[in-house]
Design a protein that fits this description.
122 residues, alpha/beta, 3 helices, 28% helix, globular
Length: 122
């Protein structure tokens, strides 16, 4: 049996540009926001390094954004919402009984960098 002739490489993003950011007073407020903007669909949040957040990337469907992504490994987020949450919990339930899942994504080095940047903003 022959081996596949493929090269695999890892080239993480070099830069994430956040165009708008909002610090929520609590994880529950962020969860409420996530539920509302999702229009009743299941929405989730990310947790890393004591912060919980959600983001909306700008689509790479335009030539300019695709060029930035491919040539500079630079991505744009149109929005970043975050709150302090020292300990990971898998679900946040709001007072309105909205249930929002939270994913511990601490193993992602790029999002770990985002979390450290968020901490500097607070």
């Amino acid at each position: 049996m022959s081996k596949p002739q493929v090269t695999v490489s890892y080239e993480p993003f070099q830069e994430i540009v956040v165009m708008e950011k909002n610090h929520f007073c609590s994880p529950e407020e962020l969860a409420r926001f996530a539920s509302i903007i999702a229009g009743g669909k299941l929405a989730g949040l990310y947790w890393v390094e004591g912060v919980v957040f959600l983001y909306f990337p700008v689509s790479a469907s335009t030539a300019v954004v695709a060029k930035e992504l491919l040539e500079k490994r630079k991505v744009y987020w149109s929005y970043l919402g975050y709150a302090v949450m020292p300990k990971f919990v898998p679900v946040i339930e709001t007072k309105e009984k909205m249930i929002v899942p939270v994913v511990d994504i601490s193993s992602d080095l790029v999002l770990k960098g985002v979390a450290l940047w968020i901490k500097q903003q607070i």
